[in-house]
Automatic annotation (TrEMBL):
<keyword id="KW-0963">Cytoplasm</keyword>
<feature type="active site">
    <location>
        <position position="268"/>
    </location>
</feature>
<feature type="active site">
    <location>
        <position position="113"/>
    </location>
</feature>
<feature type="domain" description="Beta-ketoacyl-[acyl-carrier-protein] synthase III C-terminal">
    <location>
        <begin position="222"/>
        <end position="310"/>
    </location>
</feature>
<keyword id="KW-0443">Lipid metabolism</keyword>
<comment type="similarity">
    <text>Belongs to the thiolase-like superfamily. FabH family.</text>
</comment>
<dbReference type="InterPro" id="IPR004655">
    <property type="entry name" value="FabH"/>
</dbReference>
<dbReference type="InterPro" id="IPR013751">
    <property type="entry name" value="ACP_syn_III_N"/>
</dbReference>
<keyword id="KW-0511">Multifunctional enzyme</keyword>
<dbReference type="InterPro" id="IPR013747">
    <property type="entry name" value="ACP_syn_III_C"/>
</dbReference>
<dbReference type="InterPro" id="IPR016039">
    <property type="entry name" value="Thiolase-like"/>
</dbReference>
<feature type="active site">
    <location>
        <position position="238"/>
    </location>
</feature>
<protein>
    <recommendedName>
        <fullName>Beta-ketoacyl-[acyl-carrier-protein] synthase III</fullName>
        <ecNumber>2.3.1.180</ecNumber>
    </recommendedName>
</protein>
<comment type="pathway">
    <text>Lipid metabolism; fatty acid biosynthesis.</text>
</comment>
<keyword id="KW-0808">Transferase</keyword>
<dbReference type="GO" id="GO:0033818">
    <property type="term" value="F:beta-ketoacyl-acyl-carrier-protein synthase III activity"/>
</dbReference>
<keyword id="KW-0012">Acyltransferase</keyword>
Length: 312
């Protein structure tokens, strides 16, 4: 069985920016309160004409252009999202049509915030099994569409955007084994429910779970790949909240790693957050090509998934 690798990445964010001062005119909050609790300064918000599939398509087109892989060679499209409005055609099929792909398998994956790392593992498995050779793996969310803009505990968190990766077969495995799982009896702690659907969470429950349980799981991801935490060049965690990202990164023990902090400028973009943050690090050349990077996401369903990749 061949291995696989992330060949190229790309991202897209809507041009509209919502600042903390803007939010202060909408709900009872202010810049100091938001920064002290979640570390977010700004977030990008999609307009009515911007959809999950249009953002996913733009991110995927950038990744494809960078990769040099012809569109007709893509035989699998996976889109991680929990905010797509329509059930069929799914987002992946719409992306494939927009990009003019020939005849790929197209699937949406809903594991909320950890959707991209689940989708990346699924692409890796498909390539190793020989059922795909080149895949587009995308995380895309329009979280603003499921936000209660009168709830200051949640509306200060969210942002919209997309990130994508081109994943291809490789003689040397450059995507490590996935470690994934969930805590089913705590799945209620993060919800998008109701009609209309609205995002809600039990913030303290999520914070305690993330900061106390996840560092050990992240270290086990490293162990499965045979990479010591101290040898990591980068850490890209789900961009949930800076007050969660920083203690997890510190407890992992990757003392010299570049830690993605895109949440400060982008907010929590759910399944888009890991590929979005990774793409920006690659674009700025903050991590050397071929260096080991931990991708680890967590959140909705109280699900988690992580793997170590070699930086494209």
């Amino acid at each position: 069985m061949p291995g696989s690798r992330v060949l190229a990445v790309g991202h897209h964010q809507p041009p509209g920016v919502l600042t903390n001062d803007d939010l202060a005119s909408m709900v009872e909050t202010d810049d100091a309160w938001i920064r002290s609790r979640v570390g977010i300064r700004t977030r990008h918000i999609a307009g009515p004409e911007e959809t999950v599939d249009s953002m996913a398509t733009q991110a995927a087109a950038k990744a494809l252009a960078t990769s040099g892989v012809p569109a007709e060679e893509i035989d699998l499209v996976l889109v991680a999202t929990c905010t797509a409005t329509d059930r069929s055609p799914n987002t992946a099929a719409r992306v494939a049509a927009a990009l003019g792909l020939a005849a790929p398998a197209t699937m949406d994956i809903n594991v909320v915030c950890s959707g991209f790392t689940h989708a990346l593992a699924t692409a890796d498995h498909a390539i190793r099994a020989g059922s795909a050779r080149s895949a587009l793996v995308i995380g895309a969310e329009k979280f603003s569409a499921v936000t209660d803009w009168t709830d200051r505990t949640t509306c200060v968190l969210v942002g919209d955007g997309a990130g994508a990766a081109v994943v291809t077969a490789s003689e040397e495995p450059m995507i490590g084994p996935v470690l994934w799982g969930s805590v089913p009896d705590m799945g209620h702690a993060v919800r998008i429910e109701g009609e209309p659907a609205r995002f809600a969470q039990e913030g303290q429950t999520v914070y305690r779970w993330a900061t106390t349980q996840l560092p050990a799981i992240a270290r086990e991801v490293c162990a499965r790949s045979g990479i010591a935490p101290a040898d990591l060049a980068g850490i890209v965690l789900h961009q949930a909240n800076l007050r969660i990202i920083e203690p997890i990164a510190r407890k992992i023990g990757a003392v010299d790693a570049v830690v993605a902090r895109d949440v400060v400028d982008s907010g929590n973009t759910s399944a888009a957050s890991v590929p979005l943050a990774l793409s920006k690090l690659v674009e700025r050349r903050e991590i050397a090509a071929g260096a080991p990077v931990l991708l680890f996401a967590f959140g909705g369903n109280l699900s988690y998934a992580g793997q170590i990749i070699r930086c494209p």
